[in-house]
Amino acid sequence: MKFFIDTANLDQIREAQELGVLDGVTTNPSLMAKEGITGRNNILKHYVDICEIVDGDVSAEVIATDLKAMIKEGEELADLHEQIVVKVPMIRDGVKALKYFSDKGIKTNCTLVFSPGQALLAAKAGANYVSPFLGRLDDISTDGLNLISEIRLIYDNYAFETEILAASIRHTMHVIDCAKLGADVMTGPLSAIDGLLKHPLTDIGLEKFLADYQKGN
Ligand code: E4P
């Protein structure tokens, strides 16, 4: 399972990278705005800064919503750095753009996916990643994890190579549940990754080992 961090915060990206388990980064316009990164040039520079911190794929989202503009913007993003993956929304022109980029060998991540049908369409159009937003489904009392298992079943039935990127992960249990269900990738906040290493019995056990060592020395 690949671990992506879902943030545009460079300190958090560095911290996850230093832990040694980071495979990539996802961003979106809201995450950029949260860090105060505004204006086209600043946003493009920020993507490059992120690419220089991590080794893996970095998703950069197009703002355009019509095919022609999406293609222009996506090509510009892809030219920024070899690690850039063009993030395209699941809309009609987005599906066409996914197919266009796929034919041109530009990597894509289909975002804002909330149903198995949308995920099937993204795979048919050749998306490298599909991003089902499970946290946002949970927010409206719908089982987000169930969507992950439905997409897994469909993709396995036809051996689609599109990777399931479980997105909108909110906490550590989401990560574990997605791993059980066979999501290829998870993207979440640093806190969801950090939560994986915590267990009180580890802390108690280590404290005792160190105390016992001190008694004998
Ligand atoms: C995915 O790529 C999105 O950036 C993200 O996971 C959305 O998460 P949110 O629902 O917590 O905003």
TrEMBL record:
Broad class of enzyme this protein falls into: transferase
Biological processes annotated in GO: carbohydrate metabolic process; ketone catabolic process; pentose-phosphate shunt
Pfam families for this protein: TAL_FSA (PF00923)
Positions of the catalytic residues: K87
Molecular function via GO: aldehyde-lyase activity; transaldolase activity
Pathway linked to the protein: Carbohydrate degradation; pentose phosphate pathway; D-glyceraldehyde 3-phosphate and beta-D-fructose 6-phosphate from D-ribose 5-phosphate and D-xylulose 5-phosphate (non-oxidative stage): step 2/3
GO CC term, one of those recorded: cytoplasm
Gene3D superfamilies, per database record: Aldolase class I
Subcellular location: Cytoplasm
Recorded family membership: Belongs to the transaldolase family. Type 3B subfamily.
Function as written in the Swiss-Prot or TrEMBL entry: Transaldolase is important for the balance of metabolites in the pentose-phosphate pathway.
Protein name: Probable transaldolase
Organism, as annotated: Poritiphilus flavus
